[in-house]
Amino acid sequence: MTNKKFAILISIVSMSGFSQGMLLPLIAVIFEGDGLSSSLNGLNAVGLYMGILLISPFMEYPLRKYGYKPAIVFGGLLVILSLAMFPLWKTFWFWFFLRLLIGIGDHALHFATQTWITTVSSEKNRGRNISLYGVFFGIGFAVGPLLTPLVKINEAIPFILSSALCFAAWIFTLFLKNDFPEQTVETNSFKDTISRFSSALIYAWAAFLPPLAYGFLESSLNSSFPVYGLRLDFQLSEISILLTCFSIGAIVFQFPLGILSDSYGRRRTLITILFVGFVCFLSASFVEQRFIGLAICLFIAGMAVGSTFSLGVSYMTDLVPTTLLPTGNLLCGMAFSIGSLTGPYLGGLFIQYVEDLSYFLVISTMLLLLGLIIFISGKQKGQKQANTVPN
Questions:
Q1: Residue 124 buriedness (CB in 10 A; 0-12 / 13-18 / 19+)
Q2: How far apart are CA 163 and CA 142, in angstroms?
Q3: pLDDT bucket at 382, cuts 50 / 70 / 90
Q4: What is the residue-wise DSSP string for 198-261?
């Protein structure tokens, strides 16, 4: 992959991160201001991730048949148009439908770019390349929440601005030369895709847990925390800064973690960062009413667990055969969407019905459980990584 092609792929992904980072807290704040319950607020947020989950089983066949570029062009265009349509009609179900379409478009875009990068990256620099992919998504995601205060000027401005910026990045994808994943005879239909899920799960089931954790964390933090923060009497600008602290932490350490995982092994790195994340969010529950203390906890937590998705993808790539990479990337996206579906709704229910415990305990408990599962699972049979780097 040329530097030019790689730059285009990560730039379009950064715009996708920007739109997602803006959308989650923005709509949560708008609905909270309209008096919508936190559980319904969380339910609306799952529309994006439901779109990811619904489209996932149908993605591999067209990718193999038509190649990477058409999937990226289609996904980017769907996101752009959906973002532009939010100001047209402000209702719960219309916005839910638009979020579902953005989930479909985002998944098409990410699935294609992610598979393209993992397929052409060599084993010795795979962690670095995927971490750069994650860094640029994180940069976009970090900037996105900063647009939330614009809602005080006009609710339409953040939607229109993010749509325009995504369009500017999308234009460059038209200049990419199309390419195809490695072809095999048995993967040319939807039925074959479904039958291969079990094979990929046998090889790399543990690698799908970090994307699930990241989905839960990202969606819950960006959809439920704005509501929780307002109830803690934080200002809207302070909530945006706190979310950005987490995202900046992820950006700062994502690339070093990718390089470390190339040297010391993905599994060992993942167990470490999940435990650090658990400690950080547990600490956040004790300082949640202090802005500076909470900002520090979220920044350090971002440094640790902000890389769980990209490290999970790298781990999966180490474990599965090359012919199963599209299926493995597909399952990473599905795991991410399952975590993302449960995050906002469970977070909303917790905030609505549990008053004596901190919201951050939900996240810390989830990180601890998944870290323990990966630790207890031990080395998996068939790991290609075992022959190259320490596990």
A1: exposed
A2: 17
A3: very low
A4: HHHHHHHGGGGHHHHHHHHHHHHHHHTHHHHHHHTT--HHHHHHHHHHHHHHHHHHHHHHHHHH
pTM for the full model?
0.75
CA–CA gap between residue 370 and residue 340 (Å, rounded): 15
Cα–Cα distance list, 253 to 91, 131, 300, 304, 308 (Å): 39, 9, 9, 7, 11
CA–CA separation, 80 and 165 (whole Å)? 9
For the stretch 96-117, pLDDT in tens is: 999 999 989 988 888 888 888 8
Q: Quick check: helix, strand or coil at residue 355?
A: coil
3-state DSSP assignment of residue 159: helix
* CA gap 31, 354 in Å, rounded: 20
First-to-final CA distance of the chain: 28
Instruction: Please enumerate in sequence order all residues whose Cβ is within 8 A of that of 50, keeping only pairs 6 or more positions apart, or say none.
Output: 100, 103, 337, 341
Closest of 297, 302, 310, 298 to residue 249, by C-alpha: 302
| H-helix or E-strand spanning residue 118 | helix 92-120
